[in-house]
């Protein structure tokens, strides 16, 4: 496997809530290989904490010639056969475009999912599980579309791309994330930016160009102190204000109380101020550690397995449609 080493790595903790211009629970972390430095991206770089602002910032990075790996924690695809069964198109790219158009029309992920569920051909049995207690299996059986992708079947703690109930609701992220990919692909078609998406467009990425890939914080190594590399204790406290003033005016919805990570060894606090920054950092640190060790290419390995398969469909073809998660293989 060819060694990979990017000049820059970006990790984004995505959010599927609210509309594109609303401030949401985003977290962005960046590694600059030239300076060998990791940092949290704050309002000194972003206009605000909306997905629209984050996309603009990312587009500017992708315009630059420095090869960059971008890892984002939303599903880059849907279970096999979703293209034909739901959107009446063939192929991943056309499906992304169709879903992007629906989201642009309905403005929110919930409204988009509700509209898809309400399509007459589904007879009330759409794919999105919006109600927490819903156990309707008819869509998946009747349309031969799985509730999980191959990646979710192999990932402990993973949640279905169709789930929009209480707690972590992955489908919100997936809908807004695929809309984001559709916009980025449109800019690529116009020649504004250039990149490859793993594994949909390349199974073996090349670190001489920009690469976009799906990440999942739960699959990464435990968070370590960036000052002395010691592990942190478990969180049990309240959210703190950033005493340094960095990102002090960051406007986010405080849905959960957050305890700052304080190292028991060097007594230093981490550079993040909420769980979203922390997750972005956690993925970034794992990728950076792998690159420093010359093992980044191993995170792009895809291991074939027999479960969740379709008769007559090649494993790699299914993966290139559904997507995969960095480090899963």
From TrEMBL:
According to the record, the residues making up region (Disordered) are 232-259
Q: Which domain of life is it from?
A: Bacteria
Q: What is this protein called?
A: DUF429 domain-containing protein
Per the UniProt record, the source organism is: Tautonia plasticadhaerens
């Amino acid at each position: 496997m060819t060694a990979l080493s990017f000049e820059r790595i970006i990790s984004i903790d995505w959010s599927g809530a609210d509309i594109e211009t609303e401030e949401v629970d985003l977290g962005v972390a960046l590694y600059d290989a030239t300076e060998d430095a990791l940092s949290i991206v704050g309002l000194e770089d972003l206009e605000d904490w909306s997905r629209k602002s984050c996309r603009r910032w990312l587009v500017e990075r992708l315009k630059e010639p420095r090869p960059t790996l971008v890892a984002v924690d939303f599903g880059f695809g849907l279970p096999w056969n979703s293209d034909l069964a739901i959107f009446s198109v063939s192929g991943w790219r056309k499906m992304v475009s169709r879903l992007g158009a629906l989201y642009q029309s309905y403005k929110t992920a919930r409204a988009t999912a509700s509209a898809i569920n309400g399509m007459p051909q589904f007879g009330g049995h759409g794919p999105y599980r919006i109600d927490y207690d819903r156990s309707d299996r008819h869509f998946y059986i009747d349309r031969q579309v799985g509730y999980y992708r191959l990646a979710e079947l192999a990932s402990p703690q993973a949640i279905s791309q169709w789930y929009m109930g209480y707690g972590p609701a992955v489908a919100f992220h997936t809908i807004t994330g695929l809309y984001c990919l559709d916009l980025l692909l449109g800019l690529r078609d116009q020649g504004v930016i250039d990149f490859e998406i793993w594994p949909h467009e390349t199974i073996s990425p090349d670190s001489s160009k920009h690469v976009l890939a799906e990440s999942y914080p739960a699959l990464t190594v435990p968070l370590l102190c960036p000052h002395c590399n010691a592990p942190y204790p478990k969180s049990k406290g309240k959210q703190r204000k950033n005493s340094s003033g960095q990102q002090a005016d960051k406007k986010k919805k405080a849905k959960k109380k957050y305890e700052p990570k304080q190292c028991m060894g060097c007594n230093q606090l981490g550079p993040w101020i909420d769980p979203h920054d922390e997750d972005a950092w956690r993925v970034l640190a794992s990728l950076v550690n792998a690159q420093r060790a010359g093992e980044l290419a191993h995170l792009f390995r895809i291991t074939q397995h027999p479960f969740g398969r379709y008769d007559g469909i090649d494993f790699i073809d299914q993966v290139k449609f559904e997507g995969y998660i960095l480090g899963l293989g």
